[in-house]
Amino acid sequence: MDIIAPVITPFRNGKIDLDLYAEHIRNITAKGVDAVFVAGTTGLGPALSVEERKALLEAAASVARRVIFQIGSLVLDDAVALAKYAERFDAVEAVASVPPYYFPRLSERQIAKYFRDLCAATSRPVYLYNYPAAVGRDVDAKAAREIGCLKGVKDTNENIAHTLAYKRLMPHMKVYNGSDSLVLASFSVGLDGVVASSANYVPEALARLREAVARGDVERARSIQFAIDEILEAARPLGYSSAVYELVEIFQGYDAGEPRPPIYPLDPEEKAWLKAAVAQAKAKLAL
Fold first, then answer.
1. Spatial separation of the C-alpha atoms in residues 10 and 182, rounded to whole Å
2. What residues make up the domain containing 178?
3. What is the CATH number of the domain that holds 166?
């Protein structure tokens, strides 16, 4: 059961701090993270240029043993270029893509063709990054099976039955749930793992949760999940993509940089409120 971190992208004065990015990956992989998901939602991937995503991949591949690279784009040539660039790095075990978004009336045939074009362009396995709340469409298990060439899926969906359907219909596919509130459920039902944004700030807790599930300690696993849920409930009203940076500092003890507008950093009052709001959860996790 893999713990995969969708790594934050740290900015300083509008530019990516690649040294901090690499150091952050070193820290979380030393504390239980098995692989990193580069340029996903938590990493602000859709707001990055092709060259910025390449730079992130290069930095991640230099320090992580396993990398999944998110290449989705409304420009197919850009997605293909990123897929081909990923082949330079041995650490890249797969590329992933959201389906084409914004345009609401693309047919299932057109979406399938997009993924088949990606599969044809690279020797790396291609994963579906299914995130209906963000992209406005759901590529469910039946649609994914019809595409035919997909080797994995990250399903950011709070319905565990939705994620399980991929494993039922395609048992040899790597299936990961992307909801932090379903880490316990994902491990318990035998998915291949989770892609959890909380791996940026509490990787040790996720590792302990996994260990508790493995030894059948449901009470311990549930207490860790509930503490993570408390953190999520505190952070989300502030804008979760921004709050993650502050949570890294609160739980890991170092400045994690900041997001880049239009994802704005928290202001000082919000930072102070968040620190107080998660203090009880931090104590429960003993971090």
1. 26
2. 2-214
3. 3.20.20.70
In the numeric block, which tokens belong to residue 148? 């035919």
Q: Is the pLDDT of residue 23 over 70?
A: yes
Domain membership flag for residue 46: yes
For the chain, the domain total comes to 1
Residue 154 annotated to the active site: yes
- Marked catalytic residue, from 54, 151, 154, 167: 154
Q: Is 129 noted as a catalytic residue in this protein?
A: yes
pLDDT digits (tens, 9 = 90+) for 208-266: 999 999 999 999 999 999 999 999 999 999 999 999 999 999 999 999 999 999 999 99
The C-alpha atoms of residue 163 and residue 181 are separated, in whole angstroms, by 14
Considering the domain boundaries, does residue 124 fall inside one?
yes
Question: Is residue 272 one of the residues assigned to a domain?
Answer: no
171 domain residue, yes or no: yes
Binding positions are 42, 195
The model carries a pTM of: 0.97
| Active-site choice (21, 85, 127, 129) | 129
**Known binding-site positions for pyruvate:** 42, 195
Are 186 and 163 in contact by the 8 Å Cβ rule? The answer is yes
DSSP-derived letter for residue 124 is S
